[in-house]
From TrEMBL:
Protein location: Cell membrane; Membrane
Protein family: Belongs to the TatC family.
A UniProt-annotated Pfam family: TatC
Keyword Protein transport carried by entry: yes
Gene Ontology terms describing biological process: intracellular protein transmembrane transport; protein transport by the Tat complex
Classification via PANTHER family: SEC-INDEPENDENT PROTEIN TRANSLOCASE PROTEIN TATC (PTHR30371), SEC-INDEPENDENT PROTEIN TRANSLOCASE PROTEIN TATC, CHLOROPLASTIC-RELATED (PTHR30371:SF0)
HAMAP family for the chain: TatC (MF_00902)
Function: Part of the twin-arginine translocation (Tat) system that transports large folded proteins containing a characteristic twin-arginine motif in their signal peptide across membranes. Together with TatB, TatC is part of a receptor directly interacting with Tat signal peptides.
Name of the protein in its database record: Sec-independent protein translocase protein TatC
Subunit structure: The Tat system comprises two distinct complexes: a TatABC complex, containing multiple copies of TatA, TatB and TatC subunits, and a separate TatA complex, containing only TatA subunits. Substrates initially bind to the TatABC complex, which probably triggers association of the separate TatA complex to form the active translocon.
Amino acid sequence: MSQADIDATKAPLMEHLVELRSRLIKSILGFVAAFAICFTFAGHIFNILLVPYEIAAGSAEAIRLQYTAPQEYFITQIKLAMFGAGFISFPLVATQIYKFVAPGLYKNERSAFFPYLIATPILFLMGAGFVYFVAMPLAMRFFLSMQQAGGDGHASIELIAKTSEYLSLIMTLIFAFGICFQTPVILTLLARAGFIDSAWLISKRRYAIVVVFAIAAVLTPPDVISQVALAVPTVLLYEASIFVVKMIEKRKAEADKAGGDGDAE
């Protein structure tokens, strides 16, 4: 290879690196701006996240939280701001990734990829909403049911949760449900790539159910309510994925048939 050929390959590489740097800077700035906003309103956001606890307890006055170290609540607010910043800045980051990758894709590949870019945050929001309105209140009711009123020779046992541990619990559940709700996106992408098909998904259904419950046991707190609350929607999403993959296969078969008829003519 001549020196001119080497220099010619360096130019596009430098252009890609400059563009990548620009995309990264925009993503980081978006995350930092979202972090600053979330940290400013961290107290209000934390109170919003307490609503599932309030639903389980019956009222806001019925619950008590504490922090046992001077810096604990401050660190909790930082964690909350980082979690919120990641959540808020995701559309910007995903858009920057798409804009960086899109020029290297064919038009039909871009049109096929774009719906997944939209579906990913929507499914994550659905998972987060399920945690907020269903899974977390059920889990907190279960934990609150373990309290002991005391009297008649028994000690009083009351749940006084730590702010950091409550935030860790609800963040873990939101992340776990958000990831598991991506099942249709992951499976349909694999189907489009030709790695799996609907027949394979149907044949592996029983194994998938076992794996889903195993993952739910790992990702959720050690109680049956949370595990079932995560596993059942994920199994339903698996079934929905089979339906979507069948639709993709049907459309592909129709397109291939139309192309074959066109060639025959």
